[in-house]
Known about the structure:
globular; 239 residues; mainly alpha
Amino acid sequence: MDTTLLLLIIGIFAGFFIQTVIGFGGALIALPFLLIVMPLSEAVSYISIFYLISSPIYVYKEWDQIDKNLLKKIAFSSFFGVLAGILVLVYGKPLILKQALGVFIILFVLNSFRVKKNVVILKKTKHILGFLGGFFSGLFSTGGPLYVIILQNETTDVKTFRATMFGTLALVTLMRIPVLIAGGVMSMTQVYNSFYVLPFFILALFLGKKVYLKLNEALIKRVVIALLFVSGVMLVFKV
């Protein structure tokens, strides 16, 4: 087994295990592993392939818990964000934006310790965050933390939050895949290599679900905050 395939397996397994447990974070965990052995555009393509596989599974299982109205509200701004993000991915040099996202995530985590209650997000701010979530989803597949901010202010319990995160990331993935193909970023070679990773990916989904069922709401929230902080640091320094 070569190094590229090994790190691809480790990254996808770790990322989607966390994704299944808390509702987001797959790309945040997988991306640092993948960037060791491949360019950013190729890493985004691999992550998008596995999001495409996992999204129908997540949405089917969590459909009743998803806040559909909230999903509709952020869909429009997210779509234009995804388009803008992939354009930068294909034609630009986005590493400085990767660091900026990391700084934003760290500041959000620090603020969560200072503020006891969720900050009220205005309607226009929600659209801006939706656009930025789509933008970073197109650029790095890591828009989840921005959607976390919206959903934490709009959902009432961890089950609705987690399910709606699945729905949001599924929606963004459906937007992202056609644009990646049209932009020449995704190739059949990546699809072929993904078959080698598929058994480990399925194992990650299975184990993640088992772990989720044994965790309480307070612990899941602490895991979310810890994951956000670690991923923010990794985005700032792992360039």
